[in-house]
Structure formats: C-alpha cells, structure tokens
Design goal:
Structural class: mainly alpha
CATH topology: Formate dehydrogenase/DMSO reductase fold
Organism: Amycolatopsis bartoniae
Radius of gyration: 20 Å
Shape: globular
Transmembrane segments: 6-31, 85-103, 115-139, 159-179, 200-219, 231-250, 257-278, 298-322
CATH architecture: Up-down Bundle
Main location: membrane
Number of strands: 0
Mean pLDDT: 86
Number of domains: 1
Strand content: under 5%
Low-confidence stretches: none
Membrane topology: Multi-pass membrane protein
Family: Belongs to the cytochrome ubiquinol oxidase subunit 2 family.
Length: 332
C-alpha cells in the first residue's frame, strides 16, 4: 500500500511538472520577449493561452502536498524543516506570479503594467528554479530522516543547482513547443516561426546542460547517477527520443502531436528520477515503506485520492479541450 501511495504521489509530481511547467515556461518567454512593441504579440499569445487554465494547474501542487503530508509524514517533516528556504521562496513566487498575471490585465497606466508584468515573468523563472533545487536536494540525499538538515547546503549544492537550471529550461522548452503548436493552430506563421526558433534554442541548451550534468551527478550524487544509468535509463531514453522527435516535427507536425511529444519528453525525465531513486524516498536515507503512515491511514487516503481523481481529471480534461477549441473567454 505504501508503494501505491508513492506512485500516486509521484504521478501528481509528473502531472504538475508537465502542466505547471508549460505554465511557468510561458512566463519565461514573456520575460524574454523584448520591449513593449517587439514583445506585444508573443505576450498576447501567452496571455490568451494561459488565461483559461493557469490557476487550475496548481491543483496538482496541492494534491502532491496533501499526499506527502498524509501518506509520508516523516518525509514531509524532514523536507519542510530542511528545505524551508527554497520552498518558502517558491510559495512566495507563486503568489507574486498570480498577482502579477491578474493585475496586469486591469492596470491602465503603462508603468503599472510593466511592474505587474515583470512580477509575473520573473516569478515564472524563479519558482521552477527553487522547486528544482528542492528536487535536487532530496535526490542527492541531503535531507536527513530526522529533518533539520543544513538549510543552505541542502539546496545550494551542485545537484540542486543543476536541478533548478534544468527545471527552468525544461519548462521553457515545453512552453515553446506548446506555443508553436498554438500559433500554428491559429494560422499565425510569424509567431509560429518565433516560438519554433526558441524551441530549437532551448532544446540545445537543455542538451548542453544535461551533458554537463552527467559529470555533476557522477561527482556529487553517485547513487542517483547509478540509478539513472540502470533502473531509470529507459525513461531517460524515452524522454530524449520524444524531445528530438518534437524538434524534427516542429515545422510540419500536427499541433496535437507536437504537444503530446513535449508532454512525454518532460514526463519521462521526471519519471526517470523517481524510478532511479526507488525504493528510497529521501535520497539514500529513508525508504518508502519506512516513511509511510499506518496502513489504515494509507487505505483512507488512497480511497479519497481515487475519488478526487475521478472528479478532477475529467473536469480538467474538459477545461483544456474547451480552451484548445477557443470556447473559453480569456478575459474572465
């Protein structure tokens, strides 16, 4: 039962990495779109694409926190008492990002729009970075089972910084592919070219950082490195194949196919991390079984989580379908 709860938890992590990642990545392109005149059209596409769904993506973050807190309270306490700095900064960034995105639509003065727009865009980069450092701190075994680990070295270390940078780049890549497909769906060749070029550039950056990360993991996190080369190798290969396929098909591929390939590329690399770490939950310190709550709690949680998923997944699927078909008014 503890393994089933861990799978449910990590499924939520993967979904949030994909949907929230595309959300944050769109903010990355908002930040780097250029001045008010040059960046107006890319930012307008970002607004149109995000407005109907950006709040819904955080449902999965809440799901992950509740699952971790309830199913694995020992691990939850250890993570929160060790990595409270990046987690607190990420939470602050989520609040600032949401406020910036909401208020820049109603601001009238240009200077106010710039401030709120900058808050949205900068936070869109910082939040995935801090969440990536948290993942790196956990995966590299820097969260002790008893908690209260080093609040600085726990997330400011080579593996965590690598995780943060890769998280930002992966979000930017996913968003660029999604927005390329969205521009094609809207028959806007100029914006399609704009985002396609950035998809290629971001994919190249991901490849360079990933290659450099091999040496980083080998030196700083040998256990994780070994797991990625054994148990996690298949998901890593799947991620690379799907990512390259999306790039090859960027010019002529169907929008839905491009989006599906980007989703699988990101989902597979996150899944590879989970598979490589199994059966440990806190790097090399605590196994899933040792950190799990009592069996009655796990049974109740699984039943409630299953019922919630039956309601939430179809609802969110309908939301995305309506958004893709232009049936939602992004101004509300």
């Amino acid at each position: 039962m503890s393994t089933f709860a861990a799978v449910a938890l990590f499924t939520g992590v993967v979904i949030y990495a994909v949907l929230g990642g595309a959300d944050y990545g769109a903010g990355f392109w908002d930040l780097t779109a250029g001045g008010a005149r040059r960046g107006r059209r890319p930012r307008h596409l970002v607004d149109e694409s995000l407005a109907p769904v950006w709040e819904a993506n955080h449902v999965w973050l809440i799901f992950c926190l509740v699952m971790l807190w309830t199913a694995f309270p020992v691990a939850f306490a250890a993570i929160m008492t060790t990595l409270y700095v990046p987690l607190g900064l990420a939470a602050l960034g989520i609040v600032v990002r949401g406020a910036g995105f909401a208020f820049r639509k109603v601001m009238v003065r240009t200077d106010q729009q710039r401030v709120t727009g900058a808050a949205f865009a900068v936070s869109s980069v910082l939040v995935p970075f801090f969440l990536g450092t948290v993942a790196g701190g956990i995966a590299s075994g820097r969260v002790p089972q008893s908690g209260n680990g080093d609040p600085v070295a726990g997330w400011l270390n080579p593996t965590s910084v690598l995780g943060g940078v890769l998280a930002v780049l992966a979000c930017a890549y996913t968003a660029a592919v999604f927005l390329t497909a969205e521009a094609r769906r809207r028959a806007d060749p100029e914006l399609e070219t704009w985002f396609r070029r950035r998809s290629l550039a971001t994919a190249a950056a991901v490849g360079v950082v990933a290659l450099a990360g091999i040496a980083v993991l080998h030196a700083d996190s040998p256990t994780l490195f070994e797991g990625l080369l054994t148990r996690g190798l298949v998901p890593v290969v799947v991620s690379g194949v799907c990512g390259l396929s999306a790039l090859v098909l960027l010019r002529r591929g169907a929008p839905r196919l491009l989006q599906a390939l980007a989703v699988v590329a990101v989902a597979a690399i996150v899944a590879g991390w989970g598979v490589a770490q199994y059966p440990d939950l806190l790097g090399t310190h605590t196994t899933i079984a040792a950190a799990a709550a009592p069996a009655p709690t796990l049974w109740a949680l699984v039943i409630v989580a299953a019922a919630a998923l039956v309601i939430v997944v179809p609802s969110m699927a309908l939301l995305f379908v309506l958004s893709q078909r232009g049936r939602l008014d992004s101004s509300h």
